[in-house]
Amino acid sequence: MRAAVPYPGPMRMLLTSGGIANEMIRDALVDLLGKPLADSRVVVVIDAILGFPGDSSTLVDHLEGSRALGWAEFDIASLFAGPASLVESRLRSADVILGYGGSNLWAAHAWRASGLAPVLAELLEQKVYVGWSAGSMIFARELDRWPAAFDDLDELALFGLDDAAPAVALFDWFFAGHLGADWMPGDAEELFARGAARSGQEVWFVDDDSALLVRDPSAPPTVISSGHWRRYGADGALVAARSPPAERHRTGVERVSRPCLFSPSWAPLDWSQFALFQTAPEAPRSAPTP
Fold this sequence. Notes:
disordered C terminus, 17% strand, 11 strands, Class_I_gatase-like, seven-stranded mixed β-sheet, alpha/beta, hydrolase, Rossmann fold, four-stranded mixed β-sheet
């Protein structure tokens, strides 16, 4: 394990599975901002999803739902949309950087390949960062262990990547979202527990009504949840969990129907259900570092 580096000040990071999905998560975001959303500017970074072809209706719906929260300014950006200096100016002008879902491995790569990873590291000290699914998964210090530990090597090949590395190395744990989603395999909890043991890293597995609040990356996150979540130790043992009332009275996890925004190769998805994932994409080309 690499040594954790003390963080210089309170971080304002909200890692979500399904975006600003409920009032509890929204209130946490407003608290981090210290002002209303109506007085705040957000930039949504969508590179994680851009490698997937097909009808983008789900993406548009998610963006529209996020815009409807009532921001003062709602910007959408790709890290490769012009010179790095232009993208950097858009990131710096926002109060909130929202990393949208898709491929966690490609998203982390995009920050590095664009040359903007150092900018992100700096802005994490100044801005609020909101992760949405894969956008929450790019800060694991040992992200290189993810593909093998979670049977996700196919995604490296899909995107033409030789290996995995974090956008910014912050945590000694992995984030995973969509606990209880109806497209998840029935043994998803066992799969993530096994991945924790394989990788030697803790795993936080949360549903779309939960988020992790990070103020100090060297300390455990604070759970914000009206739903359910699991925390697995580095040996794969269940360390802590919360189940919603509906689940406490029956066997099994309550299911929700929301599209997948990260896609480990073991997930037996029916791609036809999700407009963003209808055909196998060609591997996107890495943009050169400016």
